[in-house]
């Protein structure tokens, strides 16, 4: 995706990356990891009653210059700006979240990148049990360990892909998808739904997630959760403490 406001060197500084700017597998993996650990998943705009902008320039300015985070359309949109600048082939795909009790539409955006003859699922914006590095689409029915999380890709009888994560020792469906390429504008209705619908989790509660190599911090409403390989800690926060945690833990301002 192209934005006149996107600057590759600024992107590298924002995510703390100083490696090669090459169109290869190693760079693809490094960029996804660096962005995941540097830019949080967050819905502050939705909580402020705003509809998240789908303008590429707005996304580049928000995440790079204002040093904010975002949700899937923004985080994955920014990632494709970097891929575009590096000459790595990519496409948007639409995914159906599958952890809800009822069947949901394909409201999630992910990215498939193609480099050095292989296709890779990349996703910076699925929240808690999102992948932590690209997954090869030709590596099916295999446990893939990424840091302290384990994932698996499989295909159903119709050829659609299913992403699963191991949650508390059992496989949990995360989302299903096919490889049909999507245009940026195709996600505008889903973005509007996630920004405005009263049943959308982003409308209902504040949600901020910061991934780290050793774990993740999740702020859901007034509850802060810290997750590592061997420990889960929860803390109930007062309203004024939420503002402090946003600033100190997530480097975000809610003022």
TrEMBL record:
GO molecular function: acetyltransferase activity
UniProt-listed Pfam families: Acetyltransf_2
Coiled coil, from the record: none
Matches recorded under InterPro entries: Arylamine_N-AcTrfase (IPR001447), Papain-like_cys_pep_sf (IPR038765)
Record keywords, A-Z: Transferase
Family, as annotated: Belongs to the arylamine N-acetyltransferase family.
Protein name: Acetyltransferase
Organismal lineage: Bacteria, Pseudomonadati, Pseudomonadota, Gammaproteobacteria, Enterobacterales
């Amino acid at each position: 995706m192209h934005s006149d406001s996107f600057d590759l060197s600024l992107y590298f500084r924002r995510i703390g990356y100083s490696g090669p700017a090459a169109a290869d597998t190693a760079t693809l993996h490094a960029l996804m990891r660096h962005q995941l650990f540097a830019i949080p998943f967050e819905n502050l705009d939705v909580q402020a009653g705003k509809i998240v902008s789908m303008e590429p320039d707005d996304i580049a300015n928000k995440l790079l210059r204002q040093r904010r985070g975002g949700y899937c359309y923004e985080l994955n949109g920014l990632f494709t700006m970097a891929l575009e600048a590096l000459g790595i082939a990519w496409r948007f795909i639409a995914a159906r979240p599958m952890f809800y009790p009822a069947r949901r539409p394909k409201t999630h955006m992910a990215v498939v990148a193609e480099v050095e003859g292989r296709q890779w699922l990349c996703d910076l914006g699925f929240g808690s049990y999102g992948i932590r590095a690209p997954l090869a689409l030709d590596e099916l029915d295999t446990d893939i360990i990424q840091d302290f999380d384990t994932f698996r890709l499989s295909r159903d009888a119709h050829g659609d892909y299913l992403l699963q994560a191991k949650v508390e020792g059992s496989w949990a469906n995360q989302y299903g998808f096919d490889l049909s390429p999507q245009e940026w504008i195709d996600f505008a209705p889903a973005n509007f739904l996630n920004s405005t619908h009263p049943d959308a989790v982003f409308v209902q509660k504040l949600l901020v997630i910061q991934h780290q190599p050793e774990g993740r911090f999740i702020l859901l409403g007034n509850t802060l959760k810290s997750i590592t390989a061997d420990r889960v800690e929860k803390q109930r926060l007062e309203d004024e403490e939420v503002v402090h945690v946003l600033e100190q833990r997530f480097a975000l301002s809610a003022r």
